[in-house]
Hints:
single chain, 159 residues, mainly alpha, Arc Repressor Mutant, subunit A, two-stranded antiparallel ribbon, 7 helices, 5% strand
Amino acid sequence: xxxxxxxxxxxxxxxxxxxxxxxxxxxxxxxxxxxxxxxxxxxxxxxxxxxxxxxxxxxxxxxxxxxxxxxxxxxxxxxxxxxxxxxxxxxxxxxxxxxxxxxxxxxxxxxxxxxxxxxxxxxxxxxxxxxxxxxxxxxxxxxxxxxxxxxxxxxxxxx
Length: 159
């Protein structure tokens, strides 16, 4: 079963946008860094804009930027912006279902998985985008933020 990478991509995008003032970024450059298509990046930027986390200026000198510093944006806000709906889907059986166990186990699983989702959401709401950026900075060491690294962001992996 394949995992959903939209949250990871959205956090990556927001992290890169936190540097938009010092490093001009196109959706193509962000897409290359994220390993995806520019259309995917534009859709995510659209959702982040709709949720008030990003502002987009069109025309010359335009581009996307965060509406506030990364220390004031939580991963929970980014998660909510994606409008994913429930993380776990537990279909319920009709009353006529022949197996009495199945009719009971599904509601129990729904409760357990809803609790897990609530805990995950709580965790994301306690973590800022700035914390993720700092963890990236620590892993990259001295190359983080230097001009050769910044220039390479458009061509290679970054955040």
